[in-house]
Every structure is written in C-alpha cells, then in structure tokens.
Design a protein that fits this description.
Layout: E1 7-11, H1 14-24, E2 30-34, H2 37-44, E3 51-55, E4 57-58, E5 61-62, H3 63-73, E6 80-85, H4 90-99, E7 103-106, H5 111-128, H6 139-151, E8 157-164, H7 166-173, H8 175-192, E9 198-203, E10 206-211, H9 216-231, H10 237-242, E11 244-248, E12 254-258, E13 261-268, H11 277-291, E14 298-301, E15 307-310, E16 313-316, H12 317-329, E17 333-337, H13 341-353, E18 357-361, H14 364-373, E19 378-382, H15 392-401, E20 409-414, H16 421-424, E21 429-432, H17 437-450
Parallel strand pairs: 1-2, 1-3, 3-6, 6-7, 13-14, 17-18, 17-19, 19-20, 20-21
Antiparallel strand pairs: 4-5, 8-10, 8-13, 9-10, 11-12, 12-21, 14-15, 15-16
Helix pairs in contact: 1-5, 7-8, 8-9
C-alpha cells in the first residue's frame, strides 16, 4: 500500500550536507539540503519536513538555539530534530537535549548508521501518527498524502468512506462491537487497495482512500459488495431475518433503524483543480453525504456543476435541488388517525400551533382514501381503531406495501404489550401510550427534518 514520501531537511555546511543527502535519498525520502538557517527558514515556510538534521556548529550560529526556535515556532506536527554534535563530552550532548533536540549524534557520523537512525525515527513517527484502533495512517498522514498528490503530476481520485447508523449500532450492541465493525471496514479497504493506493483512517468510522481515477468506480463497487457480505456476521440471527435494528429512546419510544451500510463519496483530480487538502476532504465528504441518503451501501461521484452518479442512477445537482424545493413546499402535512375524539382534538390543536397542516379522521378507510388523494408527510396512527374491516395494524401494512404511500412516515401510537408489533407492521416509529406531547412533537420534528437533510 502506498504511503506518503518522508521529507527530510539537512542543515549543514556544503560538503557534509551533500554527503548526507546522497545516502538518505537512497532510503526513499525526499531530501532538501541547505547551508544556512536563513535558507532553512525560507524552506520551512512552504514545506513540512518529517525530520530535520542539523549541525550544532554552523558559521552563523548555534544549532542548539535553532532547535529551540523550531520547537517554539512550528505548529504540530513539528519535525523530529536530530542534532549532529562534534563533541564527545557527555555533558555537552546532554545539554543539547535540554535545548530541545530529539536525538544527538556524533558529527561526523557513519553514513549507514545515520540512514538507519533516520529510518528508525521515521518508523516511530509513522506509528505515532497511526489511528490507535486500526493502526492505519491517521489524519496527519492523510494530510501529508493529499498535499503530495496536489503538487504531483499524477491524476488521482479520493474516496471518503464511512458507515451509516453506527451510533445506533453502538447503542444496541456496545462500543466494543462497533469498534470491531470499524476495524472490519478498514480491513475491507486494505484488501481492495493495491500497491499504488493509499488508505487512511481519519476518525471514528471515517476513512479516506486514494486511487487512480479509472479504478475508482470498480473499487467503490467492491468495497460495497465486500462490506455487505461481511457485515451480516456482526448481527444476531433475529436482526438479520427482520432486516432492521430496533432503537429504543427515552420514554420507551422505538424506531426501525436500517442495518449498517457503507457510504462512499468520490472526487477526481481530472474533473477540477483542488485548492488544498481541506478542499479535497470537504468535497469528498459532501459527495459521501449524498450517498448516505440511501439506505443500502452505495457511492456517489460528486463535483460542483457536474453530474452526480449514484449507483446506476444519474442525478444532476440542479435537478436534485428542484426536487427538494417541490418537496419542501409540501412539507408539514400530518394526518392524525385517532378514534378518541378528545385526543384527536388535542393533537390537531397542538400540531397546528407548531405550524403543521393537520387533518383528522377516526376511520382507517377514510385515512387510506385521504392518503391516496393527497399524501401527507406523516401519519400519526392509533393501532386500536373502531373499523371492523381494518385496524391500525392492517392500515400501516397497506401503507408501507404501496409503492407511492410507503414513503410517508408512520408513527404508530399503541398500548399493545408487544412493543415490536408496530415496527413489524411497518411503522417508522413506535410511540407507547400514554405518551407526553413534548416527546411526540420532538419525534415528529426529527422525522420531517430528516427527509430534507
């Protein structure tokens, strides 16, 4: 797997700087050699070396003082400071550490020993910058990789990858189980990557992968397929058969939560010029957020003013915005199906005060007709209806089996002792009776907002 090229800076007199640079370049590092602190300061204004090798005795000043300056002025992650000191006096060398050097070596030093010591420091630095959960390259390594790609003449694609519904998974099965699932996703990414790809773990369940533009589509497909095949091992048999998790909130409120899936956003250096590594991360994240709108694992190619490709579907950004505007104009319509006249009146009044357009009925047949004539955004449904032909359970099942009406949010209020029955009937939210009105308003607001998020 590809890793960022280490950057080294050598500050020494001309002959020694050239000698040390020639041996260190053989380690695969990118080496810059200068002969003064002034030149070094100019370089440090636009490069971020992993390690600086400097002489203690320079014509313009003391290398120990320059170590002090670097530690005081360079922001994290600062480079490792290796001071080359000509003295064999132990006290002199110890004093150099007090000034801020991370290592003090004899000057002159055997070139092979210098190379081995530098490699050891770089290995330790790579371990320090790895994510502690997956041991994959962390945010600093990701930044370094993207910065190098931005100034290279190679074309590349960046893929932002993360898990949907991981928070609910953690709440249901525990953080330890969630960590294992995150590690499994990391293993899938490494398996899909080849020797020219880079994979890093930014934080939590977020990963970044770089690859060739012509390979991005195929590898995103493989990631989705392999993760879906593997993820079933992380659920009890009952959840797999049911096809969803049951999340329990305050007050006994339960909701159906889809099984974990993976969302991938892809950006391509051949489509636009990125200004910085932050620009790359932000653009890939925005495309990934579009992928998260689907329940199943999927990926999105996203570029400003470009087509957005999601699986086999092509959506233009303009068209998606138009659709959202139309939907927003119709948002806030609620149908209350409640046989208790007093409760129906209370719900209508309360929801209307919140700005929703509310219709009320006590009949399942009327509710179905009203939903077909002008589908509401949400139906608040009592399970125990007076209709002999159709109760709330059957009405919920019919709504969720209809190709058009299935998109309506259904909140089922019931005092039935089987708390999972409402969700099995297709309800998006189970609200145990009696419930308090503030909890209802909060849940309704969250459901309606999620549609346009």
């Amino acid at each position: 797997m590809l890793m960022p090229t280490p950057q080294l800076l050598i500050i020494h007199q001309a002959r020694q700087a050239a000698e040390y640079a020639s041996i260190l370049e053989k380690t695969g590092a990118r080496v810059n050699a200068v002969t003064s602190f002034e030149e070094a300061n100019e370089l440090l204004s636009f490069i971020h070396p992993d390690l600086i090798i400097l002489s203690a005795n320079m014509p313009e000043g003391d290398g120990r003082l320059y170590c002090q300056q670097v530690r005081a002025t360079l922001v994290h992650p600062r480079p490792v400071l290796v001071l080359l000191h000509p003295s064999t006096d132990v006290n002199e060398r110890i004093n150099a550490f007090r000034y801020g050097a991370d290592d003090v070596l004899q000057d002159p030093i055997d070139k092979n020993e210098l190379a081995i010591r530098v490699l050891a420091h770089l290995r330790r630095r790579q371990e320090e910058f790895s994510n502690p959960l997956t041991l994959m390259p962390g945010p600093n390594m990701i930044r370094r990789m993207l910065e190098q790609l931005l100034v290279s003449d190679k074309t590349w694609a960046a893929m932002s990858v993360d898990l949907n519904k991981i928070r609910v998974y953690n709440e249901t099965y525990g953080d330890l189980a969630g960590d294992q699932l995150i590690k499994a996703l990391g293993a899938v990414l490494i398996d899909v990557a080849d020797e020219t790809d880079f994979v890093g773990h930014t934080e939590a369940d977020h990963f970044l992968m770089t690859t060739r533009p012509d390979e991005a589509f195929r590898k995103a497909e493989r990631i989705c397929q392999q993760f879906d095949k593997m993820s079933s091992r992380f659920y009890p048999k009952g959840d797999i058969e049911r096809g969803y998790l049951i999340s329990t909130g305050r007050g006994g409120i339960r909701r159906r939560v889809p099984l974990i899936s993976v969302a991938i956003g892809i950006v391509d250096s051949t489509k636009r010029r990125f200004q910085s590594y932050v620009d790359v991360l932000t653009s890939a994240r925005d495309a990934r957020d579009l992928a998260k709108q689907k329940l199943e694992s999927c990926f999105v190619f996203g570029e400003p003013q470009e087509d957005l490709r999601m699986g086999n579907t092509v959506l233009t950004r303009t068209r998606s915005i138009e659709i959202q505007k139309v939907e927003t104009q119709n948002a806030g319509r609620i149908l209350v199906v409640e046989p208790d006249g007093a409760m129906a009146c209370l719900l209508q009044e309360t929801l209307s005060l919140e700005g929703y357009t509310v219709e009320v009925t006590s009949s399942a047949d009327d509710a179905l007709s009203m939903a077909r004539f002008e589908p509401p955004d949400l139906i608040l449904l009592e399970s125990n209806l007076s209709d002999r032909k159709m109760d709330g359970w059957k009405l919920c099942s019919m709504l969720k089996s209809d190709e058009v009406l299935c998109k309506i949010w259904v909140v089922m209020a019931t005092s039935h002792p089987d708390q999972s029955k409402a969700l099995e009937a297709g309800a998006d939210l189970y609200l145990p009776k009696p419930f308090d009105i503030p909890s209802l308003l909060n849940e309704v607001s969250l459901l309606l907002k999620s549609r346009y998020a």
